[in-house]
């Protein structure tokens, strides 16, 4: 074993010890999920945003603006408010999961996703994997992917089409601010979520997820659902 290899092992051991000490010293604040009482909070119904207008009884396309905000969120009666990233039309109304977007089959929905996040992430992220890193090292890269949506590539939330707050910095494949969802596919429940290169994991864990429903009257009406 060369001296260099031993040095590296020593460094890894020291880092591991530091980590263990950190875990032990903060364990007084960690809450075991098994100690939380179940079924004490109402299941929340997320705010709904219609992805269409109704003019004289006819559905028409609509443009939405949905932001990403840092705020605090209560996950359980006995947990303190937790820092999160939340989707919403304002910081005040933003939720985790984000608002449910309701679209109608065949009616275009446009969404301008706006990043209002601060410069530093609330969660640690792994810099050793390919990651969206702004040139200035400030800002949290985000880009929204409508999971299951059949849409043009420019609106599909390519991992390298990320952008930071105010579109200050953008990834190499970024093309436009306003995403176009055609809603031409089968009706059903989709979800939208962050998709930034190397940060998807932490951005979702921070709260950047939400539902997207495509409705189709002719398919649903004969079912007579409540
Ligand atoms: Cu997905």
From TrEMBL:
Protein name (record): Plastocyanin-like domain-containing protein
Molecular function GO terms recorded: copper ion binding; oxidoreductase activity
UniProt GO BP: cellular response to phosphate starvation
Signal peptide (UniProt feature, chain positions): 1-25
Organism listed in the record: Dipteronia sinensis
Keyword line: Copper, Glycoprotein, Metal-binding, Oxidoreductase, Signal
Domain named Plastocyanin-like: residues: 141-216
UniProt family annotation: Belongs to the multicopper oxidase family.
Needed cofactors: Cu cation
